[in-house]
Amino acid sequence: MIVTRSWLNEWIDLDGISTDDLAKTFNTIGLEVDRIHSYEIPKKIIVGKVLECEKHPDADKLNVCKVDIGTSIRQIVCGASNVREGLDVVVATIGAVMPNDTVIKPVKLRGVESEGMICSAGEIGLEDCQSGIIELDSSLGKYELGQEVSTLATLSDDLIEIELTANRGDCLSIRGVARDLSAAYDRPIRETNINEDEDRRVGIGRILSLSYENGLDVNLRYRAVDLKDLNLPFIVKLRLAQIEDSRETDIESLMLYVTHSSGVILRAYNYGFFCAENETMAKVELKNDENGYASIMSTVKASTVGIIQEDISKVTYDEGTVLIEASYIPPDIISKRMQESKIDSGPMYYRTSRGSEPELNQGLDFCLNLIESNSSSSVFGGTIELCDSYENKIVTITKQEIDDIIGAKIDKIRITKILRNLGFGTTKSSAENFVISVPRFRHDISNKQDIVEEIVRLVGIDNIPSKPFIFTEASRLEDDYFAYKKRSVYRHKAAQSGFFEAIAFVFDEKKVLDRYGFETLDEKLELLNPITNTFDTLRTTLMTGLLKAASQNIKNGLSSVRLFEIGSVFNSKREESLKMSMLFSGDAHKESLANAGKPQKIDFAFFTQKISDIIGEFELRQYETKHRLSHLYQSAEILQKGEVIGELFRVHPTVEDSYGLDATFICELDFPKLPYELKIAKKSSKYQASFRDLSIIMPKEMSYEKVKNVIETHASEELIRFYPVDRYSDESLGENMSLSIRFMLQSNDKTLEEEDITSSMDAILKALGSELGIGLR
Asked: Are 258 and 283 in the same domain?
């Protein structure tokens, strides 16, 4: 980031602060100074005015000028193409020693006396910023004829180049750097004065309309100007040369200058680009393009917000209506999108990807003031704008916490001044508690430690007293440990329940996933160089891998296979998540005397109990899977505390046959949703529990869940739990069936009497009859 002392002084008063002190301050507050260059304009180079300008009688490319240098009028022969009568110029007088060591002497050029030299920027040691000689104007400040140019602060200046870390996009502007200096020196930021006379201006709504899609996270503001006779001030040309950047047209150069000054991303658009044939209303449309980028559109794309402007929409004329756009898009959004779908970017992408200035009006107003001050242009009144909804992040920290983290006590008033000068809000703070509103331009601030870091860098690490280091071992129990511990606990539970752990690659075969209806990676995110054809994509489920492993074990002669795996899977966007899957295939038990060498095959109830042994109590709910591995009538989703955590099903017979498997059941769970928390003991009743069975006649098609919900709604406090124990149907019952439900009742205060139990059961029967039309068998 390149700044100059005079440029900074337009945003903050640097009076009494030397350039060396300024550099030391930059280094102290974390803005590392890479280089300093001082422009030392020699003595005897002064301000002059061209009174007359005539062609040299004996040379076509030379002009004979009468130049007023304040104390006298000198005749100077000049070969610059832009010299003319009435121009304020820089004159090297007799005896001046130029930066290239040339001494100015009286000479004759083609027979005409010349007393001095009218200078270009390069000739006095500045950057070449325009063709020909310097054309002085009011942008340099006040000056007088005969005044030494070395006394003009805007020309005899100091350039400072600062190295910024990637998170400090807020300092990619003169205003942003000045904001940090404001906190360091406790001096206010100078805001630009805006001259508005809206009543006399034609409203922008008469020439421009904006339509947009919702949810694009973009801030836009449009102003319009009828451009005429724009003349870039010399200071703008010089400073653009100093920051080593340029644009092809004056209006584009002005946009660049204002962006570097204010931090607001500005673009100038050709007004006619947005107008249909024979229409005078420009219609701007904001919507997502084919790559998901927020884009400014007409019949074709004008620009991609924050990334690049298409040449077809740029301003190439000197007179006519121009649309000025100020934009802001959060850097995390634009950077993530660019990683997912990289496209060509323009010079402003560097700023937007690191965080540009979100206060768009100050950049727009600054720009329009410059245009009005340096042209005959007229500005349209009003603004067309689109604002996203945003609330500043709030960080709460106590004064004691700040002191403890820093290791020293910092005055509360000083802390408040630092934060306010940096743009943070502290209005809701109390005596010992800071409630800090983080401005949007500081996207790098998210927690207490970040706030303390800001305080430390502005106070200065060297100004904080040293303390002896006290070595104490900190707690090592962090999130990573608990994640490892949870995984270890469930692995051991699965092993204790008779399952063997399978460990597989995170790759799978795409055609297998497609065959069974599983989600697969988007084409543009697929593996470029898969290790084999059978591992050509990232897996989106653990189940297909377990089926392959089970098939291999069956082929090796095993009659019962129990496998589990805890591992990563990926969705179509390559977003990673953790799953736990279990597979049970074949015999439920080993051959033994107890089963006469003919063990039963695994069934739904047995497998469900095995899963419960591992993850604890859960409920099942009727469910149709989204893939084609499952049996149509033996699948359910698993719920714990009312939340769906996975699915459980028998593998479809055709799939079993294709893998050479007998009856096979699979369960897949979202591992993060599995319980892993401190177990808390609860007081149990010392009184005897009572049990009652009710046999209910109900339609076969009625789900148990309906019955369960009614019972839960009307259960008394004494009803501890209930569960179905038997189901019976025969011809006499027709379309109905008998469901036996066992109820466990217990009180914390007494042994329940028969009338207490009967009352509780009657309330449930009454509710079942009134709400579902069912009752006792």
From this structure: yes
